[in-house]
Design brief:
Blueprint lengths: L1 E6 L2 E6 L13 H12 L1 H10 L12 H26 L6 E6 L5 E5 L3 H13 L1 H32 L1 H8 L7 E8 L2 E8 L1
């Protein structure tokens, strides 16, 4: 049996493993160049692994505590940038503001501000790359944390009573949402907004 799989510059030739035979992989010339480039940049990959979520998983395991610490660190960074931006724009601390993203990743502000102040805040946040990075990292890592915690709860419940666990946790009925930042009365929190 022989199968070919094309993926841009890589060409794989896969032969069925038979007794006494070895699998064979054939790379195109472009694939060989990319493999050499990857070897030359392997130190960049190692740096990425070491710096992932501020070092989470360096020991080979990423814990929920590491994800939580990273999430909170990035949320605090976003919160500090938001407070500074509100101050620079002269927006009062008693305002009620929710910040999320649309389907294209653009920040959208829902608030009790005037339309002009709302637009100014949206523009400022969309132009602030540090806020963008902190918000996205916080939001995505809180989502990962939430999934990990729910999995742990489900696994424990499933070990006790599989049918009840499936019914309780709604397996097969996905819920979706996004983490948004809510600001009110000078306090900032991040919450899951279900869709």
């Amino acid at each position: 049996m022989r199968a070919l799989l094309f993926c841009e510059h890589w060409r794989y030739t896969i032969r069925q493993r038979l007794p006494g035979k070895n699998d064979v992989v054939t790379l195109s010339d472009e694939g060989k160049k990319m493999a050499a480039l990857g070897s030359a940049n392997s130190s960049l990959l190692i740096d990425t692994e070491i710096n992932f979520m501020d070092g989470a998983g360096k020991d080979g395991v990423i814990t929920l505590d590491e994800i939580r610490a990273f999430s909170e660190k990035k949320f605090n960074a976003a919160k500090d940038i938001l407070a500074e931006t509100l101050s620079q724009l002269g927006i009062p601390s008693g305002s009620s503001i929710t910040i999320g993203t649309d389907e294209e990743g653009v920040f959208r502000v829902d608030s009790d501000l005037s339309a002009q102040d709302n637009d100014r805040l949206e523009t400022a946040l969309n132009e602030h790359s540090d806020f963008q990075q902190a918000f996205m990292k916080s939001s995505s890592s809180f989502s990962l944390l939430d999934a990990g915690e729910k999995h742990t709860e489900f696994s424990q419940a499933y070990a006790q009573d599989p049918m009840a666990a499936v019914a309780r946790y709604g397996i097969g009925n996905p819920s979706s949402g996004e983490y948004v930042i809510q600001y009110a009365q000078g306090q900032t929190i991040q919450v899951l907004k279900t869709i």
